[in-house]
């Protein structure tokens, strides 16, 4: 009787289990968060190229700033800045202009403050950064653990990708000036 | 005494001149024609750590009355205004380059109200004729649907549109809110009130005890 009990119990327990199949799902990437490369993915038509100012100087700082204004939705300010300013620039001079224009901004210079760059890119604002020993400013449009994305206003159609350490070495030795307006960055692409 | 006075006046004059030197731009600085950085200190305001802040976009044709109406709700309706203040608010016009080159493919119809998490995930979207007639209804819809995930179907790109007239930038938003908005669906009660449950429990227990009592001490005579 006991011998029959166990199989009978199993039959009772498993009754009604027809059609159930045990399978294994194909491995899929469960991370649905989409990373946009670069983080600051400004459309090409909105990227401001460098121009020569009325004193014959390049206007890379202003060009970088205008691109960032557009990314942060300040189109009127960008247009105004393009008309009103140009030529070479330096941190205090730019700060004075931005204060005069009542622009909300932040900058760092000469302190190798990587956290500033991290903040600017993690909040998707981007920032203007100095390169070439401090002679030129470009937009830092991406910074992660491995790569830095650079939008150069002398070649605004393409993004230049360099290893993070290489970029930081360049920036550290270029007076480490970084500046950005502080407004709402463009919304990410929906997914 | 006179010497002391003269020394103090000289010191005062030097002290007054020092800040002027600090503010003056060095006259020898000159920028390269191809670049443009003159010189490279620090001004860092309180940097907003708003990486987690959500995005609220209202997309539409600036000449469309419905778009203008919906956009105005986020200023006039208290709850929608509260939502706007807690998010990055983006009025996006279909005539802008940013829309044409970046958002047109992911916008099924306009006008469109879209709420995204900080990384872009679509949390709520309502477009075209699905937008309710009143701000109250839109607010209720957002409250109810905010945490549902929806996927957006791409649509063909719209044709070229005339350049819009220059418009001033909107007032910048405050930087105080740094995370997702605290809008949650209004609680909907699906349970009967607690006092009714307890009442039913007491009545049920009493009836059970009484039945058992009667069965034990007053068994039915056969």
Structure description:
The complex is a heterodimer of chains A (191) and B (222). Chain A is globular. Chain A is built from six helices and six strands, in the order ααααβαββββαβ. Chain A has one domain (47-181): Cathepsin B, Chain A (Alpha-Beta Complex), CATH 3.90.70. In chain A, strands 1-6-2-3-4-5 form a six-stranded antiparallel beta sheet, with helices on both faces. In chain A, strand 4 and strand 5 (159-163) form a beta hairpin. Chain A has helices at residues 2-14, 60-71, 75-84, 91-100, 114-122, 164-172, and strands at 105-108, 127-131, 136-143, 147-151, 159-163, 178-181. Chain B is an alpha+beta fold. Chain B is 38% helix and 11% strand. Chain B is built from six helices and five strands. Chain B has a four-stranded mixed beta sheet with strand order 3-2-4-5. In chain B, helix 2 (65-76) crosses helix 3 (78-86). The longest helix of chain B has 24 residues, at 194-217. The radius of gyration of chain B is 33 Å and the shape is elongated. The model of chain B is unreliable at 14-29 and 150-162 (pLDDT under 50). The interface between A and B is large, with 70 and 55 residues. Strand 1 of chain A pairs antiparallel with strand 1 of chain B.
């Amino acid at each position: 009787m006991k011998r029959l009990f166990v199989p009978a119990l199993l039959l009772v327990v498993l009754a009604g289990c027809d059609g159930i199949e045990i399978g294994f799902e194909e491995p899929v990437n469960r991370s649905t968060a989409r990373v946009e490369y670069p983080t600051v993915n400004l459309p090409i038509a909105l990227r401001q190229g460098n121009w020569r100012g009325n004193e014959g100087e390049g206007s890379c700082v202003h060009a970088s700033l205008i691109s960032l204004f557009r990314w942060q939705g300040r189109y009127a300010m960008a247009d105004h800045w393009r008309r009103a300013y140009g030529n070479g620039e330096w941190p205090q001079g730019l700060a004075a202009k931005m204060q005069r224009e009542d622009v909300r901004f932040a900058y760092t210079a000469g302190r190798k403050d990587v956290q500033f760059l991290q903040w600017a890119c993690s909040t998707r604002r981007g920032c203007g950064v100095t390169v070439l020993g401090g002679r030129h400013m470009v937009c830092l449009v991406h910074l992660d653990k491995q790569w830095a994305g650079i939008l150069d206003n002398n070649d605004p159609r393409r993004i230049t990708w360099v290893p993070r350490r290489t970029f930081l070495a360049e920036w550290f030795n270029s007076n480490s000036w970084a500046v950005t307006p502080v407004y709402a960055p463009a919304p990410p692409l929906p997914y | 005494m006179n010497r002391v006075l003269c020394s103090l006046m000289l010191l005062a004059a030097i002290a007054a001149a020092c800040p002027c030197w600090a503010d003056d731009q060095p006259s020898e600085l000159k920028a390269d024609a191809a670049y443009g950085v003159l010189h490279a200190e620090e001004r860092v305001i309180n940097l907003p750590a708003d990486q987690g802040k959500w995005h609220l976009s209202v997309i539409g044709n600036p000449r469309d009355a419905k778009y203008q109406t919906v956009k105005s709700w986020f200023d006039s309706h208290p709850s929608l205004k509260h939502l706007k203040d807690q998010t990055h608010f983006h009025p996006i016009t279909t005539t802008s380059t940013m829309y044409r080159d970046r958002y047109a493919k992911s916008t099924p119809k306009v006008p469109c109200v879209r709420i995204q998490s900080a990384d872009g995930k679509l949390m709520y979207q309502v477009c075209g004729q699905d937008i309710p007639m009143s701000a109250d209804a839109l607010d209720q819809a957002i409250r109810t649907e905010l945490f549902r995930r929806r996927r957006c179907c791409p649509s063909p790109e719209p044709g070229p549109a005339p350049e819009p007239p220059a418009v001033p930038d909107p007032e910048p938003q405050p930087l105080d809110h740094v995370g997702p908005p605290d809008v949650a669906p209004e609680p909907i009660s699906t349970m009967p009130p607690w006092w009714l449950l307890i009442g039913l429990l007491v009545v049920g227990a009493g009836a059970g005890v009484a039945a058992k009592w009667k069965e034990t001490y007053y068994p039915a005579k056969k």
